[in-house]
Design brief:
- The complex is a heterodimer of chains A (308) and B (249).
- Chain A has 308 residues and is α/β, with parallel strands linked by helices.
- Helix content of chain A is 35%, strand content 30%.
- Chain A has a six-stranded mixed sheet with strand order 6-7-8-3-9-10, sandwiched between helices. A four-stranded antiparallel sheet of chain A has the order 2-1-4-5, covered by helices on one side.
- The radius of gyration of chain A is 23 Å and the shape is elongated.
- With 249 residues, chain B is mostly helical.
- Chain B contains ten helices and no strands.
- In chain B, helix 2 runs antiparallel to helix 3, helix 3 runs parallel beside helix 6 and helix 5 crosses helix 6.
- The longest helix of chain B is centred in the first third of the chain and has 31 residues.
- Chain B is globular, with a radius of gyration of 18 Å.
- Chain B starts with a helix and ends with a helix.
- The chains are: A alpha/beta (308), B mainly alpha (249).
- Chains A and B meet through helix 2 and helix 3 of A and helix 1 and helix 4 of B.
Chain lengths: 308, 249
């Protein structure tokens, strides 16, 4: 597959602090890429570089093979960027905001109106188009920002928290639209909504301290942890002594205590019974077992050390 | 770019038509009342003997256009910038920063000239219209050059300053300069000689001096006019560099 976005040893510094450290990767055309990581990991900084919002301190970013710094005008035509915070003109209506961007990108009136009707319809935005941006709810503003970028038909969509501030119905509508666009457009997004990411991605890039820690489809990322399970046992009274005793069970990994809940990981379900045996004399209120997901993967301990 | 920005201004007018129209009509009358009605009893005639009413006419139009220009540029380059609205999105469109600055300046200039023209119509009803057709067109030409310089000054201030209080202080000083330091209502001859020299050479006053020269002698000083245009063009490039730096793009 052809590369839509290519980064070659891209770095970003703010003062002495390294925000992005020599990143090199490519994104295939038409793919849906999620970027996740803890706060301050460099996710938004990366989106800003990809959108042309900021320049890297070193390295090169290519969009469809064009160097973003040398071919600024052409590459900007190819990109649609939706930032996290609302940046609409507060005293224009939502429709006027969308049409202003269409005018900026020289989209003819008829095409702009057709696209606006199509995307606003898909996001159930039509009833709000005549509202002033300053008076619209945050979720509606976010949807407008997405339509505003789609109206100039960019090949690459860069989205910072695409469903931020939205209600459940709006989230569903937005993902339906984005999944429909996938294949025609390269979509790269940052989100903290891990459940949404699990459902909507071709590839997940896990960022940590300006570097890519993990990269691939969720199944591939979880490959190394497929045997692992997460366990929770709620005791009537989880004393420090009991907690210490349980942490001494040799087969458990990353034991944790929260109030009366004992939380741990294990490679097989048999680990669970080891703990049950060790705590046989105690009163247990609740038990739970689940396979690992993205949230567990992102747990900083896992990200830092892995499970082994 | 210019067309997109023009349409946006039209929408903004349309969305706030009554308050905007009200201000545009009230402002010239207010300035006339505060400036002309009082000063014509003090200054009576210009240094060259022209009745103050007639002499001050173009100056009043320049003042109105200056006041009309400020909010347009303040809104986009200060208010929306510090609140992280719109400007960044516009800056991501496929235009270089110089085109962007030029676009904003041209659109704001057109709007300020229209506001100036409205005030011309209003003043013509209050005092006799003192200009011939040619003089009127030359006044609009000089007003355009003046707005190019003043607009650049407003943009520089709006881009460099990040706090509301600082910008209020600076803009207050700029408006004192606009009112009294350009020869719009007080001739330079009324100032001490040293100050007069400084004011004559400050760039904002040059287009109006060219206009006064044309109105009194029918002469056009193309050197001064060319200098103003060249300065405005250079300032636009400087502003595009400041904008680029401020947006870190």
């Amino acid at each position: 597959m052809e590369a839509s976005i290519t980064l070659k040893k891209v770095g970003k510094l703010i003062g002495d602090k390294t925000i992005l450290a020599g990143l090199s990767f490519g994104v295939e055309r038409g793919s849906l890429v999620a970027i996740v990581g803890v706060n301050d990991a460099g996710k938004t900084a990366l989106l800003k570089l990809l959108s042309g919002f900021e320049n890297p301190n070193y390295g090169q970013v290519f969009i469809h093979g064009l160097d973003m710094e040398k071919r600024r005008r052409e590459t900007r035509q190819l990109i649609g960027y939706v930032p996290h915070e609302n940046d609409l003109d507060p005293w224009l209506t939502l429709e006027q905001n969308i049409r202003f961007t269409a005018n900026l990108y020289r989209v003819d009136e008829e095409t702009a109106i057709r696209r606006m009707a199509m995307f606003a319809g898909a996001l159930n935005l039509v009833p709000y188009l005549n509202e002033f941006a300053s008076r619209a709810s945050h979720g509606i503003q976010k949807k407008t920002m997405l339509v505003r970028e789609l109206v100039h038909d960019p090949d690459v969509l860069i989205l910072d928290e695409p469903t931020g501030y939205m209600d459940a119905e709006s989230i569903r509508e937005t993902w339906d639209l984005l999944k429909e666009l996938k294949g025609h457009k390269t979509i790269i997004y940052v989100s903290n909504a891990l459940a949404e990411i699990e459902q909507a991605h071709d590839r997940i890039m896990v960022f940590h301290e300006g570097r890519i820690l993990m990269d691939g489809h969720l199944d591939k990322l979880l490959e190394s942890t497929l045997d692992y399970h997460q366990f929770q046992i709620e005791f009537e009274n989880l004393t420090d002594e009991l907690f210490k005793k349980l942490t001494n069970v040799a087969t458990i990994i990353s034991p944790n205590k929260m109030d009366n809940i004992f939380h741990f990981y294990g490679r097989t379900r048999a680990v669970f019974f080891d703990v049950i045996n060790a705590a046989a004399d105690e009163i247990m209120i609740d038990l739970s077992v689940k396979k690992l997901g993205l949230r567990d993967l992102l747990d900083s301990e896992f990200a830092g050390r892995g499970l082994d | 770019m210019i067309l997109a920005l023009l349409k946006r201004r039209l929408w903004l007018w349309q969305n706030r038509l009554i308050p905007s129209l009200g201000l545009i009509l009230i402002l010239p009358v207010f300035i006339f009342t505060m400036v002309d009605l009082s000063l014509k009893n003090i200054l009576i005639r210009s240094l060259s003997g022209v009745p103050f009413d007639r002499w001050v006419f173009p100056g009043l139009v320049f003042i109105i256009a200056s006041i009309g220009l400020f909010p347009l540029l303040y809104r986009d380059f200060f208010d929306l910038r510090i609140h992280r609205k719109l400007l960044i999105n516009v800056a991501l469109a496929p235009y270089n920063k110089r085109t962007l600055i030029t676009g904003y300046l041209v659109v704001a200039g057109i709007e300020a000239i229209i506001i100036g023209l409205v005030s011309t119509v209003i003043y013509s009803g209050l005092i006799p219209f003192p200009l011939t057709g040619l003089q009127f067109f030359f006044m609009i030409f000089c007003l355009g050059i003046y707005l190019l310089l003043l607009g650049n000054l407003f943009i520089s201030i709006a881009l460099i300053v990040d706090t509301v209080t600082t910008i209020i202080f600076i803009i207050f000083m700029v408006f004192l300069l606009v009112l009294f330091g350009n020869g719009f209502i007080i001739e330079f001859g009324f100032f001490p000689q040293a100050i007069e020299m400084i004011l004559k050479w400050q760039p904002l006053s040059i287009p109006y001096q060219s206009l006064q020269l044309f109105l009194s002698n029918g002469m056009v000083d193309w050197t001064l006019i060319s200098f103003s245009i060249f300065l405005g063009w250079g300032w636009m490039i400087l502003n595009s560099m400041i904008l680029k730096g401020r947006l870190r793009q």
